[in-house]
Design goal:
alpha+beta, Rieske Iron-sulfur Protein, ten-stranded mixed sheet, 12 helices, Rieske domain-containing protein
């Protein structure tokens, strides 16, 4: 799942990292010492780009120091000041929202885009930006779990997404470093079983889906990650996502569309949304393009799981690694690409996904960046200093297909949603722009039945297992919120280290306690305002994460990622 949330590795401009050759020789105590050093770095007061340090006066918190420079984003569009009526109102100015807006204004529709912070300040600014031809839940699994027809439609939509971005870049003159590159799917372990059972099946399914794939042997070339057997997927897209969506935004405004930043939506209903300032926008159609929809519809939230994914950016010499995209067959899988800088390149490596909202201890065992670094250095020997680390949040649907289309809520007929992109937000967001434009204007699109949020998932082992995990995660979150003595951290408030947090009990209530870098204590209700689960402290991102549906709040309780539409409430003596 190609996601991302980048933040500079704490307290340094670059560092050599651990020599991968040393890992097999490490004793348990030595490995623990190395892990402890990384944990200390990840919680140090020198951490760059912390939520409380970035453009707070302009309302831009929760940004990260990414290879795309997300931390430099500032609002350039106005805040909405009065009620408006339009054809379509879109909530969210990331890849999905702006792609949809662009397609609609090109058709002459009046469009208003409302963004809580600034365009690209969410997960679009944290992506590794693979516009992929490979579907990361495997074409052969789509064919087996759904049908060959669905497999072919997914392939068609993925090709269309890449063609759309290429055409838009050319038509609008967007300078975003877009280029076509090869992609390679390679076995996570070099065994005949993996090669035959996974690569061969995926090769045949990709052929059926319409791709000109080839089985290749890269002969262990260090410029290709010492990979041998692989499937070559030609025609993927590399680009800078923030430069691209800025180009989309300009094109939208040029065609008469309106974009409002610092305009958080706190209420949505059929044909109308309302901002935190009480401003109403009424429209024929409402699009919720906010990573996870800002609603309470369990028909959506119960069929996908929020997951964190982790990324490291390594400095490499110019041309040391082939310019391509790389994905392995592991679960969760690793994803790799390069980004060119003026004097060097950056090797961007992601993976090690885990469920969001797990305990602080679980986030750190094993430390995801330590194991990701080890994995990388064993394969890409060109990797030098670590320049960036980051995390991002993705939503995994239970049946492996994106959720794009009409909200299944029977009380609404004008609301459309985009979610469940499985970490392929750049491809999925582009597909959403094409699909939703057709549904809003014509009421139909040949891809609709594949991506419809109202579709029935296959009743198979994988669906049952995934659904059970999601239900278990959510039930634990609800039980924690209502049961005294469960879900509280053992550490005493006075023992909290600077820049760390914990869940504590205050009377009958649970509170989220954060000690800032200056030693000051901040207390908030630990109850997520979305559906009342208890948030958990994330020691890697310094955030409060909801285990039920993935809402994220920064250390100071401010909502960074929905579906919550409000901040954590300040704790009072009676909380």
């Amino acid at each position: 799942m190609c996601l991302v949330v980048l933040c500079k590795w704490p307290g340094f401009k670059s560092r050599p990292g651990l020599d991968a050759s040393e890992f097999p020789k490490m004793s348990a105590s030595t490995l623990q010492e190395a892990r402890s050093k990384l944990v200390t770095m990840a919680t140090s007061g020198e951490r760059a780009a912390s939520p409380g340090q970035i453009s707070v006066d302009k309302g831009i918190y929760g940004l990260r120091h990414t290879v795309w420079e997300q931390q430099d984003i500032v609002p350039i569009y106005p805040k909405i000041q009065k009620d408006e009526t339009t054809d379509v109102v879109i909530v969210g100015a990331g890849m999905s929202g702006l792609s949809t807006a662009y397609n609609l204004v090109k058709e002459g529709k009046k469009v208003v885009v409302l963004e809580a912070k600034a365009r690209g300040s969410g997960m679009t600014g944290r992506t590794t930006a693979h516009i992929m031809t490979w579907y990361d839940d495997f074409y052969y699994k789509i064919s087996e779990r759904h049908s060959e027809e669905f497999c072919k439609i997914v392939g068609e939509s993925y090709r269309a997404a890449i063609d759309f971005v290429a055409q838009t870049v050319d038509e609008e003159g967007i300078d975003c470093k877009f280029c076509k590159v090869d992609g390679y799917l390679f076995p996570h372990e070099q065994s005949d079983k993996v090669i035959q059972d996974i690569l061969r099946k995926e090769f045949n399914a990709a052929k059926m889906a319409g791709f000109d794939v080839k089985m290749v042997n890269l002969n262990g070339d260090p410029a290709c990650g010492k990979i041998s057997d692989a499937i070559l997927f030609p025609g993927n897209g590399d680009f800078n996502p923030l430069m691209y969506i800025n180009g989309l935004a300009k094109a939208i405004v040029k065609r008469g569309g309106k974009i409002y930043e610092r305009s958080r939506v706190t209420k949505n209903e059929d044909h109308k949304v309302t901002t935190e300032d009480g401003i109403n926008v009424t429209a024929d159609a409402v699009v919720l393009a906010t990573n996870s929809p800002l609603n309470h519809n369990l028909a959506i939230h119960a069929r996908q799981e929020a997951q964190r994914t982790y990324v490291i950016g390594f400095r490499i010499q110019k041309g040391a690694v082939k310019k391509a995209q790389w994905w392995d067959t592991n679960d969760p899988y690793h994803y790799v690409r390069t980004e060119e800088k003026e004097d060097y390149d950056v090797l961007i490596v992601g993976g090690n996904d885990n469920a969001s909202g797990i305990s602080a201890e679980a986030y750190m065992k094993p430390h995801p960046f330590l194991s990701l670094e080890k994995w990388t250095r064993e394969r890409w020997t060109a990797a030098e200093d670590i320049l960036y680390t980051w995390t991002g949040q993705v939503y995994e649907p239970i049946d492996s297909l994106h959720l794009i289309g009409k909200d299944p809520n029977p009380t609404t007929d004008s609301v459309y949603i985009v979610t469940g992109d499985s970490g392929q937000g750049m491809t999925g967001g582009t597909i959403a722009g094409i699909l939703l434009k057709d549904l809003i204007l014509k009421g139909e699109n040949p891809w609709e039945k594949v991506y419809s949020p109202s579709r029935l998932p296959p009743f198979d082992k994988a669906t049952i297992h995934t659904t059970a995990e999601i239900i278990d995660h959510s039930v634990k979150g609800y039980i924690t919120s209502r049961t005294p003595g469960i879900g509280s951290d053992a550490v005493d408030i006075e023992d909290l280290l600077p820049d760390s947090g914990a869940i504590k009990e205050q009377g009958l209530h649970k509170i989220a306690v954060y000690r800032d870098q200056n030693g000051k204590i901040h207390k908030y209700s630990a109850v997520c305002p979305h559906m009342k689960c208890i948030v958990q402290w994330n020691p890697i991102d310094k955030s409060w994460d909801c285990p039920c549906h993935g809402s994220i709040f920064d250390a100071f309780g401010r909502c960074v990622n929905g579906p919550a539409k409000a901040d954590l409430a300040p704790a009072t003596e009676s909380s």
